[in-house]
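Lab notebook page, bench 4
Experiment: in silico fold of construct C2
Operator: M.H.
Input chain length: 349 residues
Purpose: comparison with the prior construct
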Amino acid sequence: MFSKDHPVKSYLFVFTCAALLAGLVLAGCEKPPEKLVEELGDPQTLVREQAKESLKEMGPTAIPLILPALTSDEARDNVVEVLTYFGEESYEQTLASMDNFCEEDAAMAAATGVLKQTGTPTQIIDAYIAASKAQTCTEASLRDLALEIEPDRSDVTVDQSENLRYKPARFLYKGNPDVDTSRALARLCLYDVDLGKTALPMTRDKDEEAYWAQWRMRDPLVRASIARYTDDVIWGDYHDNFIPEIVKEELKADPHDAMGNIGALAINWRKRVDMRAVEPLAKAHAGVKAYYEANPHYEDEPCLVYKALEDLGNVVGGKLADDKRRKKEKAALDEAMAALKADKETACH
């Protein structure tokens, strides 16, 4: 005899069996990771969301599988979301993959965005310096990212009234950095005037030996950066100022030396502004132009150096304009500046 609740038990039995069967079917038909990655670009919202959740549940093993999908216009935003979800664990793998996106601007930008969300300021600066030294295609993206970062505002060692972006660059100058590192940091400072005005004096004040070592480096980019941002403090407050001695030795060896004349330009406008403050500009311009014609370099380097020379020349021009007795010198400077600007326009095009 069946009890009165027989129909209910029967339904429960049937439902349980159906649920078990559905689970078995689903387990047997679990989507492969490649399919999930493909579905990140699916037009149906539900499919995309399910794919994202499934890939997140896979853990960091999903990272190398989804990175190539950064090249997909349809899937890109979802790929970035999943990569960012994994945080620090996706930083190194995303960085390592960026060389694959040299011809894919949107993918490169997306990968850079992932680094911004998952990396620390130190990691980003280190990555930029490495790219700059190797002259890889990722340098420009990492440079722009390095210029965006700010250190932790809770760092009590930093004066909160200062522009905090100087800190990563300033501390990496310490320890007498090599030429390639100094070149990389000079690029940051020449791209961002506010950073340069803050970072270079801080570098000097915190580590004089590194500063003098950089003045002695035979590289137009480094010399242009430190000459551009050398403030008046060093001329009035420093007992030991080696700049005149360094520049004097360089010009004694070669009066047309590019580095020596960049230094002379930075020195002489602080003194009585006459022809001695004008002549270094034309010589520095000619020397820099010859240097880049003979040596490999980033495409934007002449542009950066010419802009720094122009800034220094503008200071000289302003002082000459204030002295009505210096018409001859002002005319000579105007001629030199016109030639410099013409090459700058070409280099910066």
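Observations: The first helix runs from residue 6 to 28. Confidence is low (pLDDT under 50) at residues 1-29.
Next step: discuss at group meeting.
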